[in-house]
Here is the input.
Amino acid sequence: MHAEIIAIGTELTTGAKLDTNSQWLSLELQAQGIPVHYHVTVADDLDANLNVFRSAVERSDIVLISGGLGPTLDDLTRDVLARLTDTRLVLHEPSLAIIRGMFARRNREMPPRNVVQAMFPIGAEPIPNRRGTAPGIYMEIPRAGRSPCRLAAMPGVPSEMQVMFQDDVLPRITPAQAAGLVIRNARVNCFGLGESAAEQLLGDVTARGRDPEVGITVHEATITLRIVASAASVAAALEKIAQTKKTIYERMGEYAFGEEGDELEHVVVRMLQEQSQTLAIAESATGGLLAHRVTSVAGHELCFRGGLVAVDEAAANARLGQSGIAPSGTAHERACLLAEACRRHFGADWALSVGQRSRNTDTENASEAPVVLLSLAGPDGARAVELNVAGDPAIVKSRVAKSALNLLRLKLLKSQISESK
Ligand code: AMP
Ligand code: MG
Here is the structure.
C-alpha cells in the first residue's frame, strides 16, 4: 500500500509560493508507516487536474490532495472529482448550515459564491473543517479487481489542512488504526559517516518489511533513523522500539549521538554542563555558524566563554594577540596553535578552531579538493583534523560546524568514559 500527495495551485507551480503541505503530509504518513511514492504539484487548470487525479487513483491506494477547495472560480477540486467519478455536484444541506453559521458568528453575510463549498460529488463524504469554511471531501473510488482508492481532498491553508488530516483523514486511511493497533515512533540521530556506510553497519535493521520498520534519512550530513512500531498496546509498541534502539546503538556505536530533535550542539552543551567544562570558538569557514549553533541551546551561558569570527587564520591570531606568531610549521601545527591561543584568550577548558577553506597544501597534489582544518585544544594539548569540503556549497558550512561539534563530542565522550571507570 502506498500514497500519493497532490498539491494544487497556480501560486505553487509558478514558484510564487512553496508547497509546504506535501512535505508536512509526507512526514505524517511516514510516521504512520505509509510509504509515499509520488508528489505531484499542479496548476489551477481543469484538464491538468483531471489528468493528475486519473493517474493518481490508478497507481496509488491513498491519494491526499490539498488546495482548490475555496469559493473562487479558480478552485476546481470538487468539479474535478465529479468529472473523475462521472457524477455531478449536489448540495449537502448540513454543510451549508455550518458554513452559514460560521459567517453569522463573524457578523458577516455569506456571499452567494460560498454555497459551492457545500456541494459534493455524489457518493462523496464531507469532512468537517474545524478551522475554516471549506469542508474537505472524502471518497472511496472503486477500481476493477482491486481495493478502492481512498482519496481525501483538503483545504490549502496549512493550519486547516493539518487539523483536518489529523482529526478526520488519518482515521480513514490508516490500516493499523482501522485494525485497532497503536503506532509509536522514535528517532535516533547519527553523525560522522555517510549514508551507505551507515546502511552497511546497520545490516538488516533497515530491511524492508522488518518489524518495526526503520527508515533512514540524511539532512546536512546528519543521519536519522526513524523507527515506526505498531502493536496492540502502547506498552508493546514501546517495547518494540526499545529493542530496535538497542540494536541500533550496538551497531552504530559512537556515531549515534542523540534522539528525537537532538542536534549535535544540544548534546555538546549537555556534556559540557555535566562535566563542568567550558568552551571557546575561533572560526573562519563557518562565519559564526558554530557559535550560533552553540548559543541557540538553552543554558549555553553556563559553558560558552565566547567566540571570534575572522576571515582567516592570520586575522584570528592577530585578534587573539598572537600577531607575532611565526608562519612556520605545518598547517596542522598552526591550526593547533590557534586553538590553544583561543583557549587561553577566553580562559576556557576547550577551544574549537575552524580554519578557512583552502586547497590542501600539505600534500603533493595541490589541486585536490578544498579542505578545512578543524582543531580542538583542551587540557591535554591540541589536535587538528582535516575535513574534505568538496560537495554541495549550500551545506558546507553546516557540515563543517557539525564536524567541529562532533570532534568535541567524541573527546568529551572519552573523558566521560575514563571518569566513570
Ligand atoms: P486554496 O485552498 O487553494 O484556496 O489555498 C488557500 C491558501 O493556502 C492560499 O494562500 C495558498 O497559497 C495556501 N496553500 C495552498 N496550497 C498550499 C501548499 N501546498 N503549501 C502551502 N500553502 C498552500
Ligand atoms: Mg488555490
Observations:
- Residues 107 and 309 are 56 Å apart (CA to CA).
